[in-house]
Amino acid sequence: MEQQSPSAVNPPMYSQAWYESMRTLLGEGACRQLGIYALPEGFTLSVVIPVYNERNTLPVLLERVRAVPIPKEIVLIDDCSKDGTREMLKEYAERDWNDPMNRIAVTFHEKNQGKGAAVKTGMGKATGDVVIIQDADLEYDPSEIPRLLQPIVEDRADVVFGSRFLGDQPHRILYFWHYCGNKFLTTLSNCFTNLNLTDMETCYKLFKREVIHKIQPKLQQSRFGIEPEITARVARARCRIFEMSISYNGRTYAEGKKIGVKDGFKALWCIVRYGLFE
Predict the structure, then answer these.
(1) Secondary structure of residue 46 in the 3-state scheme
(2) Which of 55, 79, 121, 234 has the fewest CB within 10 Å, making it most exposed?
(3) % residues pLDDT > 90 (the chain)
């Protein structure tokens, strides 16, 4: 009796064979609600990870990203870390990972430029069909990426924002004034973009490849102003934007949180600047 290969018995998750088996078992409606779908043949997700002084969290984060059962290229950009992260990434760049699901590429900035600069560099290096931005600090859970990807794969969206304030996903309770500032900046951004987002400042933003081609060469902000700039540019490009709930495990300043009041004022300037002018 001829034996079947393991992949025939247990097809890879998000493959067409896996989806068909799940649809037969659960029905199409349940599959849609549970985020069960098939990826196109040859699909690759680019995960852009800006890194600055994340020696303690990066190894865990990288393992969680690699565990996402989707073919990926992981683009790590070190923004001139000083805490040993840079040496860790040099070792990652030279390691033979022997991992067909994950290609890992590392780029090094020779001087510290900020998250926005690292995001722009990573977008320029990314070659996947869809690009997502992933922080290295464990505040966002990579296991939620397949759910966020679904509207783009089904061609209902060009861009997806993951919202920390939408739905019932768990989030750590921290700073009241940060929450108020975030809501104020999001509301002001909506006034200029005519969108109705609930979380403009979210890290989790996913883009189709063609959207990256449109916005990446124009990006100017080097620090956290990249969030309102990206939002204004995708709004001006008339992208189909979806928003989906995500969980959030925020850090305290003692745990390494980097954004501050100065960045909030910069975001105000960016909202007005990119909301009014190309």
Answers:
(1) strand
(2) 55
(3) 82
Nearest to 52 by CA among 2, 118, 97: 118
DSSP states along 83-143: SSHHHHHHHHHH-----TTEEEEEEE-SS---HHHHHHHHHHH--SSEEEE--SSSSS-GG
Q: Which amino acid is at 224?
A: F
DSSP 3-state assignment of 21?
helix
On whether the pTM is more than 0.85, the answer is yes
Residues 219 and 204: their CA atoms lie apart, in Å, by: 17
Tens digits of residue pLDDT in 251-261: 777 776 667 77
The model's pLDDT over 155-214, given as tens digits with 9 standing for 90+, comes to: 999 999 999 999 778 888 777 888 888 899 999 999 999 999 999 999 999 999 999 999
Alpha carbon distances (Å) from 85 to 41, 66, 92, 102, 121: 35, 18, 10, 20, 18
Tokens of 25: 């078992």
Say if CB 181 and CB 213 are below 8 A apart. Answer: no
Tell me the HSE value of 85 on the side-chain side, using a 13 A CA sphere. Answer: 27
Spatial distance between the Cα atoms of 106 and 108, rounded to a whole number of angstroms: 7
Of residues 1 and 43, the one with the higher pLDDT is 43
142, 179, 189, 252 from 186: Cα distances, Å: 24, 11, 5, 21
Instruction: Report d(CA 129, CA 7) in Å as an integer.
Output: 24
User: Two tokens at 8?
Assistant: 């025939």
Neighbours of 29 (CB within 10 A): 9
Mean pLDDT of 112-123: 96
